[in-house]
């Protein structure tokens, strides 16, 4: 049985911290699931860390569904959350419902995430009314990067902080089961966390949130184009990979790979027959 939204909401009530990570493929999702992480986000960060786009804006529904299916196949227990791509939920309530439904019906996800607060609250409500759990996302919302003018900390002025609190309350009221707070001053994230009943999941929002989310490639040192301040590199996977691949390259060139251990033998009489 997979983790449910009630279990996630109860973790907040019990004061139990919630861990969430992104994953984009079968093998990685399998490890994340086996470690026991209850929430796996197939984030549209896929576009940058896996597909090599400059921003998340280029990511399409088809790309998201392709990767969501792989993550679902690799997991048994975690709730898999599909990230709605840019402009797949803004145009109308029916577009938002239809695209959210695709994540559940075709992708096999158990929930969706979308960016925005007050302005998308009607879409959140309508998706929840279809029986689809919705995670909100406010603060730095990368799909609005051109409007925001860069990957900057959000909510530092009194007006911006007040707007963010209103966004969080609107999402809670619309039925979101949890809200991501991205790149928000820690004291503001703590205040929002205290003011709403659903869990906040922070990324660059301090330890006062109910949970934390990170992009898996950032914490594994597996995306080195840009390392955000909020990410802690637990290992540098690219260094480990680079060493292993250099060794492979050297051994192939030297003829020392493969050895007998990686080769297959055959009955000598068959060979003798052929070379007669
Ligand atoms: O796309 C993503 O990975 C996200 C996380 C940063 C929360 O939205």
A few lines on this structure:
The protein is α/β, with parallel strands linked by helices. 43% of the residues lie in helices and 13% in strands.
What can you tell me about this protein's structure?
The chain has 276 residues and is an alpha/beta fold. It has 2 domains: 5-235, Alpha-Beta Barrel (TIM Barrel); 240-274, no CATH class. It is built from 12 helices and 8 strands. The longest helix has 18 residues, at 237-254. The chain is elongated and about 85 Å long. It starts with a helix and ends with a helix.
Inertia-based shape: elongated
Count of beta strands: 8
Helices, by number, come to: 12
Helical content band: 40-55%
CA distance, first residue to last residue? 62 Å
- The named CATH superfamily of the largest domain: Phosphoenolpyruvate-binding domains
From the alpha carbons, calculate the radius of gyration and give it in angstroms. Answer: 22 Å
Going across the major beta sheet, what is the strand order?
A: 1-2-3-4-5-6-7-8
- Structural class by secondary-structure content: alpha/beta
Topology of helices and strands:
Elements (H helix, E strand, L loop, with lengths): L4 H10 L3 E5 L3 H10 L3 E4 L3 H4 L11 H13 L5 E5 L9 H13 L5 E3 L7 H9 L4 E6 L5 H4 L9 H17 L3 E5 L3 H10 L4 E4 L7 E4 L1 H4 L17 H18 L13 H8 L1
Parallel strand pairs: 1-2, 1-8, 2-3, 3-4, 4-5, 5-6, 6-7, 7-8
Helix pairs in contact: 2-4, 5-6, 6-8
The protein binds 3-methyl-2-oxobutanoic acid (KIV).
